[in-house]
Design goal:
Helix content is 72%, strand content 0%. It has helices at residues 6-28, 30-37, 41-69, 72-91, 95-123, 128-155, 161-179. Helix 1 packs parallel to helix 4, helix 3 (41-69) runs parallel beside helix 5 and helix 5 packs antiparallel against helix 6 (128-155). Pfam families: MFS_1 (PF07690).
């Protein structure tokens, strides 16, 4: 029997395909960003470090809120934060603005983790480990493809920002796709038993699982 959440899973995986590109975009465009931000390689490296700090800042709270309010809102929130990052980096003229954008990208990673890992476990209860390990494959796919794209941009003497815009466009289209996809029930949807009924031990399909592990 076909799983009705299969299209949802495909959309979730594509978010991590773009995430794989996002985490190395600044590293591969370091020379161009040095000129734009009027800084050195050390300054760009500081901005890159903001992704990890941003991720850690909201990881736990995002997972807790995802169990309460659902997976889809946090996936969409993560997508929105990533879109701001892709656009903001291109318009940033100082490392301070760029650092804020990088911090936002780190938060986006946590929001995606909070919604995606539990969603896949709830959508594929018989093979949750396989469903989640495929995330790594899509991250690696994005990191494999991006250097090729940047090489083509350099060869064609085109603006480096097209790599950021391409990643943002893929994520935007994917977000619109996910808005139309069904998501599996989450613990917050499980109705509590009425007072008149005998208490029944609640069964949770998923809790705060896999959120403390890094995506990379």
């Amino acid at each position: 029997m076909k799983n009705r959440y299969f299209p949802t899973a495909v959309g979730l995986y594509f978010n991590y395909f773009v995430h794989g590109m996002g985490v190395i975009l600044m590293s591969l465009n370091m020379s161009s960003l040095e000129q734009q931000w009027h800084t050195s390689a050390a300054g760009v490296s500081i901005v890159i470090s903001s992704l990890g700090i941003g991720r850690l800042s909201v990881l736990l709270i995002a997972g807790m809120l995802s169990d309460r309010f659902g997976r889809r809102p946090f996936i969409i929130l993560g997508t929105a934060c990533y879109l701001i990052f892709f656009i903001g980096i291109l318009y940033a003229q100082t490392i301070f603005v760029a650092y804020a954008c990088g911090f936002l990208a780190g938060m986006a990673n946590s929001f995606l983790d909070a919604g995606t890992y539990p969603s896949l476990m709830e959508a594929f209860p018989r093979s949750p480990s396989t469903a989640n390990i495929l995330i790594k494959a899509f991250v690696s796919g994005g990191q494999f493809l991006l250097p090729i794209i940047i090489s083509l941009l350099v060869w064609a003497n085109m603006w480096f920002g097209w790599s950021f815009l391409l990643a943002g466009a893929i994520m935007l289209i994917n977000a619109l796709f996910l808005l139309r996809c069904p998501f599996p029930p989450y613990p917050g949807r499980i109705l509590k038993p009425k007072i008149s009924q005998a208490p029944v031990a609640g069964v949770h399909h998923c809790s705060l699982i896999d959120l403390i592990s890094y995506t990379l």
